[in-house]
C-alpha cells in the first residue's frame, strides 16, 4: 500500500513555486490508480515524490509500512528496486540493443549472465518483443520503445509501477495497445500501477480509482465509475465532459427548452445510472406508478472496467402535479437525476 501523507513540495529559486500543497492519498495493492491534471498541476512532481526522485518538502511517503522520507540514500536505492517507472519519452539507452536495455538494471545489481538471460527472455515474451531483441531503440516505433521501457521497469520484479504520461507521445491505437499491456501485467503480476495523465480517456480505459489534481491540491478522488457518473469538482466535471458529451443533443435544443414549468410543457430530466441498476425497469415502473407518459429522447450506455454506466434523457408528461410526483419518486431511487428544463408538450 502507498500512503501519501500531507505532502508539500516547494521548488526554490528567486520565485518560490509551491508545486504540491498538502497531498494525502492512499493507493491500494494491485489497483490501477490514475492521477489526472492539467499542465503545471503538479502531477510529475507528485509521482516523482512516490519514489523520492523528488524529495517532498514535508509530509511522508509510506510504502508497505516504510517511510521513504526517513531513509538514507543506500536504503532508498534498495527501496527503489521495488518501484519501477516508465516515462513519456521512454528514456532508453540509444547505444544499447533492446535486450541490453532490459538487462541494464539487472547488470547494476550484479545479476549473473544466466539470471539476466532467463529474466530478459521472459520479459521480452511478456511485452511481445522477442523478435526485436537485437534492434536498437532508433529502429523501433514509439509503442515498441514503450514496451522496452515497461520490460526494463519490470526487470527488478517491482511491486509498484509508476507511469509518467506513458502514452502521451503515442497515437490512439498504440496508446490502446500499451494500456492493454499495462492492464494485463497488472492482473498477471498483481502489480500496483500509478498513472499520471492529462487524458481522461486513459483513466476511463484502465484505472480503478482516480484523483484530480489542480494547483498542487487533490480536488476530488474516487472510483472511476462514480466520478464519471457524478463528478463533484469543476475540474473533474471538465475532464469527464471531455470524454462524455453532456451537451443537450441538438434535436432536443431545437424543441425549445425553457427553465420555467408551465401547464403546456413537460419536464425534461436526465437520469444517470451505474452498475446493475442499468438493468432495472425504471422507466416502465414510472409509467405504471404514475400513469404518466414518458418519452425517451436520448440514451447512452458505456462501460468502465466492465461496469455499465449510462445516461437517459426523458420527458415526464402528465399534469404538473404528476410530473412533480414522478420527479420526487426518481429522487428516491439510487440513481442520479437532474431537471434540464421544460419542453413543449407536443414535442
Ligand atoms: N525543477 C523545478 N524547478 C522549479 N519549478 C518547478 C520544477 N519542476 C516543476 N516546477 C513547477 O512546479 C509546478 C508543477 O509542475 P509539474 O511538472 O509537477 O506539473 P505537471 O502537472 O506534471 O505539468 P505537465 O503536465 O505540464 O508536465 C509547475 O508550476 C512547474 O513550473
Automatic annotation (TrEMBL):
<dbReference type="GO" id="GO:0005524">
    <property type="term" value="F:ATP binding"/>
</dbReference>
<keyword id="KW-0067">ATP-binding</keyword>
<dbReference type="InterPro" id="IPR003439">
    <property type="entry name" value="ABC_transporter-like_ATP-bd"/>
</dbReference>
<keyword id="KW-0472">Membrane</keyword>
<keyword id="KW-1278">Translocase</keyword>
<dbReference type="InterPro" id="IPR027417">
    <property type="entry name" value="P-loop_NTPase"/>
</dbReference>
<keyword id="KW-0813">Transport</keyword>
<dbReference type="InterPro" id="IPR017871">
    <property type="entry name" value="ABC_transporter-like_CS"/>
</dbReference>
<dbReference type="GO" id="GO:0006865">
    <property type="term" value="P:amino acid transport"/>
</dbReference>
<dbReference type="Pfam" id="PF00005">
    <property type="entry name" value="ABC_tran"/>
</dbReference>
<dbReference type="GO" id="GO:0005886">
    <property type="term" value="C:plasma membrane"/>
</dbReference>
<comment type="similarity">
    <text>Belongs to the ABC transporter superfamily.</text>
</comment>
<dbReference type="Pfam" id="PF09383">
    <property type="entry name" value="NIL"/>
</dbReference>
<dbReference type="InterPro" id="IPR018449">
    <property type="entry name" value="NIL_domain"/>
</dbReference>
<dbReference type="InterPro" id="IPR045865">
    <property type="entry name" value="ACT-like_dom_sf"/>
</dbReference>
<keyword id="KW-0547">Nucleotide-binding</keyword>
<dbReference type="InterPro" id="IPR041701">
    <property type="entry name" value="MetN_ABC"/>
</dbReference>
<keyword id="KW-1003">Cell membrane</keyword>
<keyword id="KW-0029">Amino-acid transport</keyword>
<dbReference type="InterPro" id="IPR050086">
    <property type="entry name" value="MetN_ABC_transporter-like"/>
</dbReference>
<feature type="domain" description="ABC transporter">
    <location>
        <begin position="2"/>
        <end position="240"/>
    </location>
</feature>
<protein>
    <submittedName>
        <fullName>D-methionine transport system ATP-binding protein</fullName>
    </submittedName>
</protein>
<dbReference type="InterPro" id="IPR003593">
    <property type="entry name" value="AAA+_ATPase"/>
</dbReference>
<dbReference type="GO" id="GO:0016887">
    <property type="term" value="F:ATP hydrolysis activity"/>
</dbReference>
Amino acid at each position: 500500500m502507498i500512503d501519501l501523507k500531507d505532502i508539500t513540495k516547494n521548488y526554490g529559486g528567486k520565485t518560490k513555486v509551491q508545486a504540491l500543497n498538502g497531498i494525502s492519498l492512499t493507493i491500494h495493492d494491485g489497483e490501477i490508480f490514475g492521477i489526472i491534471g492539467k499542465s503545471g498541476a503538479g502531477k510529475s512532481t507528485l509521482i516523482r515524490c512516490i519514489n523520492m526522485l523528488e524529495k517532498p518538502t514535508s509530509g511522508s511517503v509510506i510504502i508497505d509500512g516504510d517511510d521513504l522520507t526517513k531513509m538514507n540514500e543506500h536504503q532508498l536505492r534498495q527501496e527503489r528496486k521495488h518501484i519501477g517507472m516508465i516515462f513519456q519519452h521512454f528514456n532508453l539507452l540509444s547505444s544499447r540493443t533492446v535486450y541490453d536495455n532490459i538487462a541494464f538494471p539487472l547488470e547494476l545489481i550484479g545479476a549473473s549472465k544466466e539470471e539476466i538471460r532467463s529474466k530478459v527472455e521472459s520479459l521480452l515474451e511478456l511485452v511481445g518483443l522477442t523478435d526485436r531483441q537485437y534492434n536498437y531503440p532508433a529502429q523501433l516505433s514509439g509503442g515498441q520503445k514503450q514496451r522496452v521501457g515497461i520490460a526494463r521497469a519490470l526487470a527488478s520484479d517491482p511491486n509498484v509501477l509508476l507511469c509518467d504520461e506513458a502514452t502521451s507521445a503515442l497515437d490512439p491505437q498504440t496508446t490502446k495497445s500499451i494500456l492493454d499491456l499495462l492492464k494485463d501485467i497488472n492482473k498477471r503480476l498483481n502489480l500496483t500501477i500509478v498513472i499520471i495523465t492529462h487524458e481522461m480517456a486513459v483513466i476511463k480505459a484502465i484505472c480503478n480509482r482516480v484523483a484530480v489534481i489542480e494547483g498542487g491540491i487533490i480536488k476530488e478522488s474516487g472510483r472511476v465509475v462514480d466520478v464519471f457518473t457524478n463528478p463533484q469538482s469543476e475540474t473533474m466535471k471538465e475532464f469527464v465532459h471531455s470524454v462524455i458529451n453532456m451537451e443537450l443533443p441538438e434535436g432536443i435544443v431545437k424543441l425549445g427548452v425553457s427553465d420555467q414549468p408551465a401547464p403546456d410543457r413537460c419536464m425534461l430530466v436526465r437520469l444517470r445510472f451505474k452498475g446493475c441498476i442499468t438493468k432495472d425497469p425504471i422507466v416502465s415502473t414510472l409509467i405504471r406508478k404514475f400513469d404518466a407518459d414518458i418519452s425517451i429522447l436520448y440514451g447512452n450506455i458505456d462501460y468502465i472496467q466492465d461496469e455499465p454506466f449510462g445516461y437517459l434523457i426523458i420527458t415526464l408528461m402528465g399534469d404538473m402535479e404528476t410530473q412533480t410526483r414522478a420527479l420526487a419518486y426518481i429522487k428516491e431511487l439510487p440513481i442520479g437525476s437532474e431537471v434540464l428544463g421544460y419542453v413543449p408538450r407536443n414535442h
